[in-house]
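Follow-up to my earlier ticket, as requested here are the two runs.
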Amino acid sequence: MSGGSIPREFIDDLLTRVDIVDLIDSLVPLKKSGSNFVARCPFHTEKTPSFSVNRSKQFYHCFGCGAGGDAISFLMDFNHLDFVEAVEDLAAFLGLEVPKEQQNYVVDKSSDKINAEQSYELLKQVALFYHKQFRDNPDAQKAIEYLKSRGVGGDLAKQFLLGYAPNQWKTLEAKFGRKSLLEVGLLKAGESGDLYDRFRGRVMFPIRDRRGRVIGFGGRVLDDSQPKYLNSPETSYFQKGKEIYGLYEVLKKKPKPVRFIIVEGYMDVIALHQYGVDNAVAVLGTAVSEMHFNLLFRFASELVFCFDGDSAGSQAAWRAVETVLPVMRDGRQVKIMVLPRGEDPDSVIRSKGVDAFSVMLDQAQPLSDYFFLYLTDSHDVKSLEGRAGLVGKAKSYLQRLPNGVYQELMLNQLQKITHVENLDLFDDASVQKMSQSTSLIASRKKNSPARAVITLLLQNPNLIKFVDEQREDCSGLESPAINLFKKIAERISMAESPSLISLVESFRGEAEEKYVKRLGFQDLQLPEDVIEEEFSEALRRMVKQEREKFLEKLILKEESQGLDESERRLFLELLEKK
């Protein structure tokens, strides 16, 4: 397998081309407010807008929760992507293809550690090994018979890369090595510390991410032993709260499906695909989350939940409704389809056929209908007390909806049901005022001189001219702040056209990344005509402060163990400047 990294020049070009306002507005509707654009923050629940997007500096910042970053950071956080996926999505937004710097990877069975590309390759090879057991292992016949009994043929087994895990303790270790398998969750340690295969004697369901990489496995027993279904443990490659089974297979056939049908398990997904319902997906043995919703809504505007007809299914349906509310932006649709008691998607489609199942899908309840029917079931809307209780309960949910037409229509429906006019979702007393930004001068207690210098230099690389004038004053000084300041200044000096975004991205993956992002995307709202004066003053105070701190450090060292020749020379220079 060959993989590769994305050239830095391409990433910088993407960030130069994109307008972050256009990008974020396509996902979170923005409103103009002064020189910036604002919205309610998509990363935390709030009642008034504290999320600000700055077009001139191409970054976003939330004064409520502190979130901030550039276009790539927004896509990573909003859509729960890794860095490469976010770059690919940003490139797609701009209509560009991502180039790769090629590098070959080979799994080394003797190695204690493997990198990400090697891990994905190992997981793929294990999935292929399990799949080949259908042909090579006589014991796999019972797995084949089980799949046939569920209507799964060879083509579908190949499409989903289904397989069989031999009912032996050390099959994988003998073939693929020990340490690497442990790292990706395929081996398990017993009480004595001895390692053995996690999956044994099970039908295997490889779990693939949307790029088609195998990231983990689910396994079903072929007897009455427990647990009936077993998933891979959480690893750096597999977090079941973020992944969706069958998504890769759906998108491979239909990159933009009209809708997704969300069912409860692996076999439900495969059974529906077997009958041509090829837009079925499932979460991985966990409650559906906002991450799942945001991921699916990237590809389709309509989601239909298909729940089994039992009490657990009803409870799961309401949990899904509660969870989806914060992401129900205008243009998105959710429907709830609760099957007859005792039925699941497989049994319904077998007994009634695909056409009947399609009719049931079309007749699924819209989220709004299900929401109000569920709440009115526990409130007597014929009584004043019941209507008052319903208003209080419903408002607490409707407040979670994003601002927009959908929220207004839901509020209107509540007013019709309860006959209460002029309902306001947010009482005046509960409205939170947007955090007020202050100038750097007014916030010096919060921003030390070093913080101020680094923030302003990142946001205004042209200030390097003032740094050049004081480089000599910083020579010899060492501290985390000074070292970072020097590193930023050096990168600005070496860059052809430095910008805040390119500087911050240059620190991605480095130890200082988090600190650089936090300072670089801090919105100071400092007037343009005082930036140079503020920076010069902060730089002067930083150098003075760092000199005094370093001088104190040298004095302590002189008293305890003495100074070497270079330290003594610097000590005398600092004393003279003091």
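Run two:
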Amino acid sequence: MSVVGATGVRQVRLVCGIILFCFVVSHFLNHALGNISVDAMETGVYYHTLFWQFLPVAIVFYTAALIHMGLGLYALYQRRQFRWRTIEPLQLVLGLSIPVLVMGHVIGVRLAQTLYGHEKLYPQELYLFFVAAPGLLWQMTILLLIAWVHGCIGVYFWLRLKPFFPRAAPYLLAAAVLIPALSLLGIYQGGRSVAADSDDGEWRKQHLSRRQVGTVAEGDTLERIASGLTIGYFGLLGLVLAARGVRALRERRGGMIALSYGNGKTVRVPKGLSVLEASLRHNVPHASVCGGRARCSTCRIRIIGDHDTLPTPSQREAFVLTRVGTADPSIRLACQLRPTSDLSFFQLFAPHTHATGGEASTSASIGQERYLVSLFVDMRGSTQLAEKRLPFDTVFIVNRFLGAVSQAVIENGGQPNQFVGDGMLALFGLAADPQTACRQALKAAAGIAMHIDALNDLLSHDLRQPIRFGIGIHGGEVIIGDIGYRDHIVFTALGDAVNVAARLQDMTKTLACETIVSEEVRRTADIAEDALPQQEVAIRGRDEPLAVRVVANARELAGLVDRSERVAA
């Protein structure tokens, strides 16, 4: 079962939205040329239309617009609760209002050109807004702002989990403010210029001819078409709302079911609601990092009693449960399970709540999806070291080892995260892109080796044999967030990439090397393919072997990274 198949609708809506937002950005920048002159606007719109009306591009654009609108209506029907976050219902409402506001403009410009050959450009449109029908200017301003805010919210949801977003956010915010401001100011400046020129009869003769603005009869026809399409769209909205009502009525007539949470709490809800939606409707705290999108498994529940009568897991639910290694049929995702009879269960993950208010914590503190590089390092021979030393002496040496390791990690942009005995997990990529994170981790491995060399020299009079170590490095998507209970909460990363790094570190013992680097890290860091010997290893919990690079001497990694950076430069 592929990820693409399980998330197809959401990905299609995202791709269509990005295409439409690119058009909006292009159009806004064209408007901004009005701050120079109307002639500049006309020059800009020539290249704008040259690209967007190029037949293959036009087909993609209008297809994306229709699909995006259709998926917006489907989202309105599908959504059961509007309390995930305020911004999401706002985005939906803004998106559904755009077709109503833009219909007249599209018909008056694009369809008029197709049917009657009208050539309405900036002089004609600005004359309409600033002279002939000033009331339409406010409608157009509202449309521009709604389209921009809707698009920006979509871009935010798309990029917020990307590793580069914290660094890019200030620049994106500046663009989100400046582009519409300059666009509206350009329209105002261009409109003032057109309004002043329109008093000249020669200007009117040149820019308001029948070929450019059409006849009254043609205008009436276009207006009737726009009105008909607008009414049709409202009809579609009405059908969707009616379908929601019919669904709610059928659910109520289908009967109510009782959901028991295993802690004495029981709620009654109509059939058809998911367990997570039932929790939200009755204000029952329920963990859900991804907001009910089946992109995580934190809303998992274990069914108490018979689970044979439950609906079969959807494709997406089955994928997530398989991904987390859950084969127990009594474990389900609360956001996907829609029981049709009374159900008893308990939550596998207790929801985060504040100490006093009981309100749900923010998703940032619960978890976020990020691409990180995990580096596991472990001290070799610590057991034998402890057998022949006083306990405090052993603690001293282990602390010096962990201090040397941590210093190398910090020097190379990483963050020491967990200390387990004489081992440590370090994370790279919390404030860097994947390629930089991979290079930082490789340099940190070389730095660890050099710091341990210095430590061995320092303690040579007290060590029978030098301190040795093993390092495993792997990168991938993980969940980062706060883990623990009450006053014992720590920030860490969880996921397959972390587990693989730990397994690779352990394999350095059997492969007699200092470091094992996954092929994913080698490729992302852009290290030469022939720079390190390749090997395939079996990872516990994985069906297929993993390609890795075996590094006998970790110190050489720094030179390989430097060479890669010079080639890239």
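The only thing I checked on run two: The domain at 367-568 is CATH 3.30.70.1230 (Alpha-Beta Plaits). Let me know what else you need.
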